[in-house]
Amino acid sequence: MIRRLYSLVMKGAQPLLRRKLRRRGAAEPGYLEAVDERFGHYSEPPRPGALWIHAVSLGETRAAGILVDALRERDPSLRLLLTHGTATGRAEGARLLREGDVQAWLPWDTPQAVQRFLAHFQPSAGVLMETEVWPNLAEACRRSGLPLVLANARLSEKSLRQTLRLKRLAQPAYASLTAVWAQTQADAQRLTRAGARVAGVFGNLKFDARPDAAQLEKGRGWRRAQPHPVVMFASSREGEEAEFFRVLAAHHELLRAGWARRGSDPAVAQVRWLVVPRHPQRFDEVAAMAAQAGFGVSRRSEWNESGPAEADVWIGDSVGEMALYYGLADVALLGGSFLPLGGQNLIEAAASGCPVVMGPHTFNFAEAAEMSAQAGAALRVQALQDGVREAAMIAADTTRRDAMARDALAFAGAHRGAAARTADALLAILRG
Asked: What UniProt keywords are attached to this protein's entry (predicted)?
């Protein structure tokens, strides 16, 4: 009964979804691509038997790419069906495709759209990355006998509370999964409470990612040419940048007034600040925000091969170049952690040897954040103002900075192996 009511709500919400897609498409044209796929209508000819992997957004798609590499190393003939929910996820997923692979949107979770999706593509098995468990999708896979697993699975305390409030709807969906492979023991315990049968704790796939070596070296070359320390605000989120520029402006105003001893730190003024927004559609907005705060701005899209132009603030307005930015930076402030947004992925920074200063909100990567702090690779602060000051001080102290960089590399290296474990378990299901 509860799932029937849910299905009616989802069906009734379809016009709202179309309206939302039109609004998002004005800023990100990718959302206007193949809109009918969102409702289970496909123009792509069916190619039954592919392994279906669903990665909703950019972070999940990058994790899926690590798994795909491990799978193809074991079975080069493997064909893929990749589905996504966001434009950035779909754009990133296109890089993973080989001849014979297919890419599509995952349909809106109505029984009719889900049935059309499964009937059209007829995958051999399904892999949901990290968190994406939909009731009608899970039930349709169970009824059709399609193995459906949750890989690199995580569930925060907040998400668990929400799940338990809707347990009559959510618990059957989790219980229908063929296997759940959790990132951490804490995730496994929460997933079990949600109704899942956890088959293993495999670690986080993102530890197996290797930064692009050419990008990393290019960024480090640019850093060596800089006379000042560089601090990056990595994957900053809406609301954080305004506070960040306010904090910087306050420091600079105090210094100009000769009040360094009354709350400002000269190290802050010596830093070159690099801001890399999490969402590409906000690049222009963040650059304008920096200029309105009185800072000289230079954007990555304007740089040549010699690197950044002289400016107070650099804006990383490109996609797929995080290794370049981590190579350029001495220290990174962790975006999404200074507001209750859960924090962005700090593992990529560690793998690049870049120390991290993070805020209080890291529930999306709770265990990784805690372990990185214990390993000396990261430092936690309670407010963005404290983070700006601490990051500047670390960047200016080469001994401390180098020690944290070594600890970061060691931390990243010590937790690899999830990709091999996940690929082996998945292929065992495929081979029956």
From this structure: Cell membrane, Lipopolysaccharide biosynthesis, Membrane, Transferase
